[in-house]
Specification:
Blueprint (H helix, E strand, L loop, with lengths): L4 E6 L7 H16 L3 E6 L5 H12 L5 H25 L4 E4 L1 H4 L1 E3 L8 E4 L2 H8 L3 E5 L2 E3 L5 E3 L4 H13 L3 E6 L4 E2 L11 E2 L1 E3 H9 L7 H9 L4 E5 L8 E6 L10 E17 L4 H11 L4 E6 L6 E9 L3 H15 L3 E14 L9 H11 L6 E5 L2 E7 L3 H11 L11 E2 L1 H12 L1
Parallel strand pairs: 1-2, 1-9, 2-6, 3-6, 9-13, 12-14
Antiparallel strand pairs: 4-5, 7-8, 10-11, 13-14, 14-21, 15-17, 15-18, 16-17, 18-20, 19-20
Length: about 425
């Protein structure tokens, strides 16, 4: 009889010290005694990645991305080896594996690699031999055999990908918080922990700056219907937040959460010629550099010219500005400017699909607090506004109160992949 298998991921704070590593080892040992097989994915110890980045900067201001990948992957390897030793000291049979050893193969994009496939033969054999596998997250190898990394927070993606490849029942993400909240509890005192949330809502939240999960991890889980549970590594009894498929036949609350992202910057090109092909001339060089644009707004054309603004992650501002200064000269824009003192406030909720008036309530609430809206974007279950960064806390609290998120919502109904398949089969009959 096959034993159940779960994949657990522990973040940097969860393995941030020797005492924390020993604590995690004891938790895993208890789970292992129940007869459950465990694969563990670990991040680098808290602060280790930043330390390595700083060291690299002291040597060379613009290091090659290939070398940065090799350097930064070392943090997770240290964590995996130490946790494996801690498990062995508890009498638990365990083995550590790097991205290469676990068979995680990626494309060739250094520092932002995407997973192509996982050759899990060695992992399956290790599980067959009754080992707990401790995997260095965030990393893999490309076709050339070079070490690649998956981007900041990539250990979440490593965990979900392994859970899918190994056929785990669920993937548990352990962090320093005990679940997903209606807003950041650090700035909203009445923020409430959600028991369950849909993949779609979590995808939006992750894309909007929620630090709980990396967006690619949620995308992976959604695609393969892998249930995710976000739990606290400090709270043993906490149930956390379940992220899974939602039964669309059930009523959803209009809004599930308020998100904010201060890691934003805005670039504006003044008096851009209003001609066919100009937008392509602006954004193609950005795409070619592997940079991502978020929101775009263009003013109404006046006398053959228009102003165009777009937002992006703040860490990509300097690189993008260099590109835009060259573009501005080529397209004969008057000038190009940047603003890094902005924030994006977003309202997320599956219930927006069937309820009107959400945008109006947002605008009214912000207007009441005399907060000016610089840019607006909407989707089926999201409304986002760009505001001045100094108003972030005020805006989030105002919107949280306006939508009554401090109150316990009616229970949602969520379904597992197995249940969804059964339901679909029943309908066909």
């Amino acid at each position: 009889m096959n034993m159940p298998l779960i994949v657990q991921k522990y973040g940097g704070t969860s393995v941030g010290s020797i005492d924390r590593i020993k604590h995690v080892a004891k938790r895993i040992a208890r789970i292992r005694k129940t007869g459950t097989q465990v694969v563990v994915v670990v991040s680098a110890m808290a602060g280790e990645t930043d330390k390595l980045v700083k060291m690299a900067g002291q040597i060379y201001q613009n290091p090659e991305k290939r070398e940065m990948d090799l350097l930064l992957s070392s943090g997770e390897r240290i964590s995996s080896a130490l946790l494996t030793m801690a498990l062995q000291s508890q009498g638990v049979s365990a083995i550590s594996m790097t991205g290469r050893q676990i068979g995680l193969q990626t494309d060739n994009v250094h520092t932002r690699a995407r997973i192509k496939q996982i050759d899990a033969k060695r992992a399956r054999q290790a599980l067959k031999d009754n080992n707990v596998i401790v995997v260095a997250g965030f990393q893999g190898i490309n076709e050339q055999g070079d070490v690649t990394t998956l981007g900041r927070g990539g250990s979440d993606t490593s965990a979900v990908a392994l859970a899918v490849a190994l056929g785990a029942s669920q993937c548990e993400i352990y962090t320093d918080v005990d679940g997903v909240y209606t807003a950041d509890p650090r700035i909203v005192q009445k923020a409430r922990k959600l028991d369950m949330i849909s993949y779609d809502e979590m995808l939006e939240m992750a894309s909007l700056g929620a630090k709980v999960l990396q967006i690619r991890c949620v995308e992976f889980a959604h695609k393969f219907q892998m249930p995710l549970v976000v739990k606290s590594s400090y709270n043993e009894g906490g149930k956390g937040t379940l992220i899974c498929e939602e039964d669309l036949n059930m009523e959803q609350p209009v809004v599930s959460g308020i998100m904010y992202d201060k890691n934003q910057a805005k670039i504006t090109l003044k008096e851009v010629p209003d001609q066919p092909g100009i937008a392509a001339n602006i954004f193609e060089p950005i795409a070619a550099a592997g940079l991502s644009v978020d929101m775009i707004i263009q003013n109404i054309s006046a006398e053959g010219h228009t102003d165009l603004s777009f937002t992006l992650a703040r860490e990509e501002l300097n690189e993008t500005m260099i590109i835009m200064e060259n573009v501005a000269k080529k397209i004969h824009a008057v000038n190009v400017s940047a603003d890094s003192k902005i924030a994006k406030i977003s309202i997320v909720g599956a219930g927006m699909r069937s309820h009107s008036g959400v945008a109006a309530k947002i605008f009214k609430s912000l207007s009441k607090e005399k907060i000016n809206i610089l840019m607006i974007s909407t989707s089926e279950i999201k409304v986002s506004c760009i505001i001045e960064q100094k108003h972030t806390k005020l805006a989030v609290n105002a919107l949280h109160k306006a939508f009554g998120l401090e109150k316990k919502a009616n229970s949602k109904k969520y379904i597992t992949k197995k249940a969804a398949r059964k339901k679909s089969t029943t309908k066909k009959k």
